[in-house]
């Protein structure tokens, strides 16, 4: 591995260590969140209340030296509440832009499915182009702009389905499960000692491991991860198989191909390798495809899950030697 990739490996290891001071367990979740950031993409985080979704993103922002903003999505939230608006300044006799919370590096869109599609669509341009248009004027967002949107998987009353165009802009779906018994026991012990995860983050014990400028540069090092030609064919075959499967109504589009390639490369870097293996693509297929596939109603009625369909697809696609 060359020197630049060694630096990327070191930063990833230090980031894991610092995040571990706050987030108990959730190693796979932390890795996938780091993959999202280092590929310059966005992620949809799904989990019941209290599993530290917000705390994870706040900790990521601290560790990676980035700004953080949070938007609580509600049915009455308006697009201008996200992007900002021009307000007339009587003293200057001119309009002044009041920037919304979207002007940040890490944006937490909390319970994004509680706002209607019109409000959700305010994020589409920001997620795709890293810029927003306000009153016909375009404003650039930071180079590290990343959206982490959360959903509660068990409470659907008063929610709106995410448009397919918006779901496709999230590279990964990250599922956060409740902690294991030993992890929950450790959490209880830390609460007794006044060293809760929230207190640890607030105390300043967590230190940045990289600057925002260096973070943007480290992303370029992923280009040095080797992907063999036959593995590219394997990746494309997985995505195309999702469109042909008998139980799938809407399969993955070309953006999923790009996402799986980026995720596979980043996963190789997380493992300390400068080359991609079939297992990298296998491991990242579910988080890349799970929120993109729509099953046929008759299969949903029979209890077939998207996760089961993805597993079958992986079994059917030939793995290159």
SSE blueprint:
Blueprint: H1 3-19, H2 27-38, E1 43-46, H3 53-63, E2 68-72, H4 79-83, E3 84-89, E4 94-99, E5 106-110, H5 117-120, H6 124-129, E6 131-134, E7 137-140, E8 146-151, H7 164-167, E9 172-175, H8 181-192, H9 197-202, H10 212-219, H11 229-244, E10 248-250, H12 254-270, H13 278-289, E11 294-295, H14 297-301, H15 306-316
Parallel strand pairs: 1-8, 1-9, 2-5, 5-8
Antiparallel strand pairs: 3-4, 6-7, 10-11
Description of the structure:
By secondary structure, this protein is of the alpha/beta class. The chain has two domains: 1-203 and 210-220, P-loop containing nucleotide triphosphate hydrolases (Rossmann fold), CATH 3.40.50; 225-321, Magnesium chelatase subunit I, C-Terminal domain (Helicase, Ruva Protein, domain 3). 45% of the residues lie in helices and 15% in strands. It has helices at 3-19, 27-38, 53-63, 79-83, 117-120, 124-129, 164-167, 181-192, 197-202, 212-219, 229-244, 254-270, 278-289, 297-301, 306-316, and strands at residues 43-46, 68-72, 84-89, 94-99, 106-110, 131-134, 137-140, 146-151, 172-175, 248-250, 294-295. The strands form four sheets. The protein has a five-stranded parallel sheet with strand order 2-5-8-1-9. Strands 3-4 form a two-stranded antiparallel ribbon. Helix 2 crosses helix 12 (254-270) and helix 13 (278-289) packs antiparallel against helix 15. It is globular and about 70 Å long.
């Amino acid at each position: 591995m060359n020197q630049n990739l060694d630096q990327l490996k070191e930063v990833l290891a230090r980031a894991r260590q610092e995040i571990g001071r706050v987030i108990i367990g959730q190693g796979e979740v932390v890795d996938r969140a780091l993959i999202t950031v280092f590929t310059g993409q966005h992620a949809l985080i799904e989990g019941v209340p209290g599993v530290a979704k917000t705390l994870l993103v706040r900790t990521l922002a601290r560790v990676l030296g980035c700004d953080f903003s949070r938007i609580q999505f509600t049915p009455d939230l308006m697009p201008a509440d996200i992007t900002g608006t021009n307000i007339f300044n009587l003293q200057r006799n001119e309009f002044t832009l009041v920037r919304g919370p979207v002007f940040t590096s890490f944006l937490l869109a909390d319970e994004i499915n509680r706002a209607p599609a019109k409000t959700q669509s305010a994020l589409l341009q920001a997620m795709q182009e890293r810029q927003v248009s306000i009153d016909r004027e375009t404003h650039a967002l930071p180079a590290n702009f990343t959206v982490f949107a959360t959903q509660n998987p068990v409470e659907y009353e008063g929610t709106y389905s995410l448009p397919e165009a918006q779901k496709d802009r999230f590279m990964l779906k990250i599922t956060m499960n409740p902690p294991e018994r030993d992890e929950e026991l450790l959490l209880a012990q830390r609460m007794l000692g006044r060293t809760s995860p929230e207190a640890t983050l607030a105390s300043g014990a967590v230190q940045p491991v990289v600057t925002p400028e260096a973070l943007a540069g480290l992303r370029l090092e992923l280009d040095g991860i080797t992907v063999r030609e036959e593995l590219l064919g394997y990746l494309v075959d997985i995505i195309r198989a999702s469109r042909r499967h008998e139980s799938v109504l809407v399969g993955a589009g070309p953006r999923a191909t790009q996402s799986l390639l980026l995720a596979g490369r980043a996963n190789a870097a997380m493992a300390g390798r400068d080359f991609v293996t079939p297992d990298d693509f296998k491991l990242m297929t579910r988080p890349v495809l799970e929120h993109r596939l729509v099953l046929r109603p008759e299969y949903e009625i029979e209890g077939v899950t998207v996760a089961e369909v993805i597993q079958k697809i992986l079994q059917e696609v030939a793995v290159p030697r």
